[in-house]
Amino acid sequence: MQTQALYNEDIMKAVTYSDAKKNLKALIHKVCMDSEPAIIVGSRTKDQAVLISIEDFQAMEETAYLLSAPANRAHLERSLKQAAEDKLVDYRPNDQ
Question: Is-above-0.85 flag for pTM?
Fold first, then answer.
C-alpha cells in the first residue's frame, strides 16, 4: 500500500504508523480541521486503523442510531426522495 506524506498538499489517504507516531499532534489537528479521516497503516495488512475526529464519530453514531429503527429509516428515506424530487415544504416554527 502506498502512503502519502503527512504534510502533502493533497488529501491524505494513508500514513504509516511511524509517521503518525512522530507527528501525532499535527495528524490529529489535520483530521479535525479537514474532517477527513486518516488511515494509519502498519507493517502488516491486519495492522490498520482509521483516525477520525470526535465530531465525525458522533455524527456516524447518530446516523447509525437514526437508521436502526425501521419506521425512522422509512421516514428518512421518504424525506430524501421528496427532497430529490424538489418537493420541499417551507417550515417556520411558531415562535418566529
Answer: no
- How does strand 48-51 pair with strand 38-41? antiparallel
**Model pLDDT, residue 44:** 81
> What are the φ/ψ torsions at residue 76 (nearest 5 degrees)?
-65, -40
DSSP the chain: -----TT-SSPP-EEEHHHHHHTHHHHHHHHHHHT--EEEE-SSTT-EEEE--HHHHHHHHHHHHHHHSHHHHHHHHHHHHHHHTT-------TT-
The C-alpha atoms of residue 78 and residue 18 are separated, in whole angstroms, by 46
